[in-house]
Queue: 3 jobs
Job 1
Amino acid sequence: MIRFVVLACFLLSVFIRKFSNSFSYQGELTRNVSLDNILPTNTLYYIKMIESISLIKCSSQCFLLNSACVGIIYNKIFFSCHLLKSYFTERSKNKTSVEVGWEIWLKKNCCSVGWVPFNGHCYFLNKTMTNWYDAKVVCELNGAHLVEIDTQEENTWIMETFLSPWNDGATDIDEEGVFTWNRHTNVTYSNWRKGEPNNRCMYDKEHCVQICRNGLWNDRNCDNIYAFICEKE
Ligand SMILES: [Ca+2]
Ligand SMILES: [Ca+2]
Ligand SMILES: [Ca+2]
């Protein structure tokens, strides 16, 4: 009898895993079948990888990390679990390898539609060419701020995820050479291009910061227009 019950439970769990595209574990994860069998090669997307673990346990690990974990990639053949820091974007999709047995399960509503999660924050690329002052206001009207980059990891993820150049929130408007994020906290991490910041352009001084395509920073005129990124905590 016990054997029968165990067998029935096993068959039921196999059925649920095979045919369901969502399940609940202290919240809901939804499978995105369009991303089956692909695995991003960039480890920036992963919080950590765990081997020999069930789908349910893998999910529970993700929920334990709250908003820092946006979902999982799970291999149903090898029982391998990758906890995710970020959704895949169209750009990151190009940097994947095709493997067998991988499924992606994402939490609902980590960020608003159009915003991309990373490490518990949400980011939005606004492609409207805008000067620094107006970009700052637009972000604030959306309950966010111009992106503040605190680590090399965040800088690299942003460069990998969004096309640049674009504005970030660093400025030395208030005191020449002293850069702050959005005029309130000091910039501690930086990634200046060689020779920058040089506070020099043809007609004026440079007090706002642009991220170049290679992820390096350049101070430039605050009136210059670029796309920009807003970030929500
Ligand atoms: Ca940040
Ligand atoms: Ca300056
Ligand atoms: Ca410069």
Note: DSSP finds five helices and 17 strands in the chain.
Job 2
Amino acid sequence: MSFPGSGLAKGLAVTLRTMTKRSVTAQYPDVQPDLAPRTRGVIGLFEENCTVCMLCARECPDWCIYIDSHKETVPPAAPGGRERSRNVLDRFAIDFALCMYCGICIEVCPFDALFWSPEFEYAETDIRELTHERDKLREWMWTVPEPPALDPAAEEPKELTAARKTADKLAAQQAAEAEARNAPRPDGTENPGEAT
Ligand code: SF4
Ligand code: SF4
């Protein structure tokens, strides 16, 4: 049940509360904003990781990723082997006038070639300048923040586990070889070991 004039009183109370609050106006550009670590500002391309699989361009809902490439034949690594072909990137561009910053391209890239950078100061007076070509996308790469440290209780990434296992195996193999070289011969004479 409401009393006559209670709506007006509530409205005035809200106005009073707002009037007495401190102003939160951001003084940009004099004061740079304190951005969240995962801010979606612009996309950086680490093209060494890009295999031109086209997944990002196909999945982009705005069709604003432009990729051109050609195929190159790679000679066989060993005699008698087969020639291989690989894709070579000719053009990689993102039109930020169309991009809606959904992040799908970054999510779907299977080779970690795309990253969010918090940089946002790239407004242009000419809309065509908002299509960033590969050189510009690479420059954004250097503004990508380091990933946050792993939670100490988190499971070790499988890539690290595999690399550690390989390193341990190699070290054990080298130790066994060194031991075999230095072990005494069956006739009791000393093993000369590895020639120096
Ligand atoms: S963030 Fe979304 S819209 Fe922008 S390029 Fe990537 S997939 Fe396309
Ligand atoms: S999904 Fe990744 S690897 Fe594939 S074309 Fe796009 S950036 Fe390159």
Note: Strands lie at 42-45, 65-74, 84-95, 114-117, 131-132.
Job 3
Amino acid sequence: MQTGSEGEVVAISEVQQQLNPATGETVAIDRKATAQNSKFMSANIKFVKEDREVVAASGANLRFKALENGIDLYTLMGKMMNCGGYGQCGTCVVEVTEGMEHLSPRTEVENRKLKKKPDNYRLACQTLVHGPVSIVTKPSK
Ligand code: FES
């Protein structure tokens, strides 16, 4: 919104025309609305020990976002022997202290690997983030 020359409020159009290659039709896309909607689809990940907060798009992989932002997920053993995010090694374990409801459900792999761990423990490589969460890396239990 902008103020016009006589004080009236003028909306700046952010609607753009885009060609849909599948149908050949022109489609109107409201860039402003798209930007506002994507704001609601972001997920803040707070890494408690590191005192860092990372913004991610909804559905982001927790391991990927951690590594991308220089958060160290692995103990020494994990650094040498991790499976690269395929749910095979169990070394990317994290504790979720807030926002469990904003994560994807535990996978079968996690149910197997985390059988003896508390319910709020997850494998970062198997976890998708859909909203604000607080994460403790390298939990001690
Ligand atoms: S990186 Fe191996 S289980 Fe997550």
Note: Residues 82-83, 85, 87-92, 123, 125 surround FE2/S2 (inorganic) cluster (CB under 6 Å).
